[in-house]
Amino acid sequence: MRFTVNPYVFNEAVSFTVSMLYKPTQPILSGVLIEAISDKVTFTVFNYEVSAKMQITADVSKPGRVLVPGKLLANIAKKLSVREVEVSFDEYDSDNQVEIRNGSAVFKLPAMPVAEYPEIPTLDTVSGEVVGQDFVNAILQVHAAASNDDVTPVLRGINFDIKDNIMTLSATDRYRIAITGINWQPLNGQPDVSFLVPAKVVSDVSKQFSHAEKIQFVIKNEDDKQVIGFIGDNKIITTKLISGIFPPVHKYFENIPLDHYAVVNTDDLRRTIDIVSAVIDGDSAIKFTFQENKITLNGQGGEASQATDEVFANLVGDEVTVGLTPKYLKDGLNGAKSEFIRISFFKSNTKRPGAILVTGQRSKDEHDEKSFKYLQQPILLMR
Q: Where in the chain do CATH 3.10.150.10 domains reside?
């Protein structure tokens, strides 16, 4: 194998694939598979759960394939100068080394046993596509609500529900629910479908494809072929789907209260939360008192520490006091992506306050009709 390539293009391909090496469980899975044929070179990693592949254009003088240590290759790629990179490997050479030349610099690294590398998942017909920036924004809105709890795998995923040309994404960790929707363009007769994808992988997809104009999906949800593939910017990421039934979170958004809510400037509320959070411990609750024209925040921490601040708000309905985890509420503010937010109050059949619903607000007087909704359960306050 021998090819020459632009150093920046080479580094991008190596950096992308190596970044998707998720703590390899076997030494062989720490490698990057390089395959050169015609005028294309493909870089691939795979760990039986997640695969990542990127194809670049290069001057291939001798086709071939080789497996090299991923982190070592990434370290080399970062140090390359602006001169062309030449990569060569002779499988019949007793040294069994891959050579990388870059100007006067010469690097040699060991070739790994390519025959032992697992078979990489193949993708079939493209199922549909979404606008890249819409997808990235949607993941930013819901990802924070996914659980980190290993006990319940289905909650560690983001649920995708495709119906009537809308892709709805939702996540929950039992304490809050985030949901949003984007336009979906079905291709090749793809029917309506639901699937559950690991939240970490989805987050990485949104980062790696942040500049993609379109992101295509290949959905293989058949028996033992439960795999999702994401395609964009000459990159492909695949992952196994999570098996199990995602909770029916949509039912919690029924009967949204229209007559009991507060409207507040998003940045002002975020800043006030940060101020009061200075004294609280960990995920302790802050007491939010919603009154006419203001929200008063009160936090109590260790060693008798206390902080109080208030922010202007417009309240419709009765005064209400709830305890809320500040980090969770800030995740909802960030997801709304609007200058103002509306906090609506659900009624409760118990003495405890009901859940709150965070949605976007175009202005103090005009509600945002975007699909993002964020429901947060209150925390019982110690009186």
A: 2-116, 128-251, 255-376
Residues of the chain short of pLDDT 70, as ranges, are 221-225, 350-352, 369, 381-383
Summarised one tens digit per residue, pLDDT across range 1-50 is 999 999 999 999 999 999 999 888 899 999 999 999 999 999 999 999 99
> Are 286 and 273 within 8 A, CB to CB?
yes
Query: What is the C-alpha to C-alpha distance for residues 214 and 110, in angstroms, rounded to an integer?
Result: 38
* Phi–psi pair at 317, nearest 5 degrees: 110, -170
Class of 128-251 per CATH? alpha beta
DSSP string, 258-296: SSSEEEEEHHHHHHHHHHHHTTS-TT--EEEEEETTEEE
| Residue 319 exposure: Cα atoms within 13 Å on the Cβ side | 8
In angstroms, rounded to a whole number, what is the distance separating the alpha carbons of residues 130 and 138? 11
| pTM score | 0.91
